[in-house]
Amino acid sequence: MPFQSIEPRRLYRQIADQIRGLIRAGEFPTGSRLPPERSLAKQLGVSRPSVREALIALEVEGLVEVRIGSGIYVLAMGGADDVQAANDAAAGPFELLRARYVIEGECAALAAKSARRAQVAAIEAALDEMDRERRDGRQPLASDRLFHLRIAEATGNGALVQVVKQLWEERAGPLYKQLEHHYDSPELWTAALAEHRLVLKAIAGRDAAGARAAMQRHLNQAYKRFSKGWDTLQ
Q1: Domain identity same for 69 and 158
Q2: Would you say 89 and 179 are in contact if contact means Cβ atoms under 8 Å apart?
Q3: Cystine design at 39: which of 35, 47, 48, 77 (Cβ 3.0–4.6 Å)?
Q4: Is residue 74 within 8 Å of residue 34, measured between CB atoms?
Q5: What is the rounded CA–CA span in Å between residue 126 and residue 193?
Q6: Residue 1: inside a domain, yes or no?
Q7: Based on the domain organization, do 66 and 144 belong to the same domain?
């Protein structure tokens, strides 16, 4: 038999494979609760964010259900209907946030240096649309994406625009959306909007260091919000 190419697999996928295998082997029957996230991380020798990404992947597949304030429960085996969607993700949600921390932080700094007045106005217009959607009780995802893309465009670097677009394509994928689903609330968007305004203020003030810090602070806060224990959320 000829050699087959070896595909590098993300850590969260390896964790998901182990948990999936135990479920299929009957170690965790339908309706049972998986060990807590902290316990799984300790037993597997990995970080809690990696375990959370794996559990989100299994939830997207339909193998488990996250019940906030209660735990992670095993569903009937027939529910795994979206395995490919979970496997197609290039990065887990927390990996994605860390990549955005690096890249979009620098985009904000460059935008502060090179943005034209019309570009600053366009960033502000996207932010105002976010605020309108939030006040109307709508999830402002499209205007959020537009805010970040307009910052990338204000750098004057087409390659950075394409990178940010690609990051946002991943952000719109099933893993990130499923993780966000557990935390989505008016309070989350109110906090995010305030963080965005600090980014805009620094860009408009031509403060490159301040713009970088504000964008990185925003993405770090998103990381922290999505890291809150499921057993403590209500």
Answers
A1: no
A2: no
A3: 35
A4: yes
A5: 11
A6: no
A7: no
DSSP string for residues in 133-158: HHHTT---HHHHHHHHHHHHHTTT-H
DSSP H or E segment with residue 64: strand 64-67
Residue 182 lies in domain? 93-229
Place of tokens 């597997």: 44
| pLDDT tens per residue across span 134-143 | 999 889 999 9
Closest CA to 65 of 27, 36, 34, 38: 34
Q: What is the pLDDT of residues 13-40, one digit of tens each?
A: 999 999 999 999 999 999 999 999 899 9
Quick one: tokens of 215?
Answer: 């964008």
Beta bridge mates, 71: 67
- Sequence-distant (≥ 6) Cβ neighbours of residue 193 within 8 angstroms: 127, 130, 131, 134
CB 133 within 8 A of CB 143: yes
* Residue 7 CB contacts under 8 Å (≥ 6 apart), including other chains: none
What are the percentages of helix, strand and coil residues in the chain, rounded to 5? 70, 5, 25
What is the tally of structural domains in the chain? 2
End position of a domain, from candidates 42, 58, 88: 88
pLDDT band at 9 (very low <50, low <70, confident <90, very high): low
3-state secondary structure of 229: coil
Residue 99: how many other CB atoms lie within 10 Å: 17
Q: Are 120 and 63 members of one domain?
A: no
Q: Are residues 106 and 207 in the same domain?
A: yes
Clarify whether residues 69 and 133 are in a common domain: no
Is 159 found in the same domain as 189?
yes
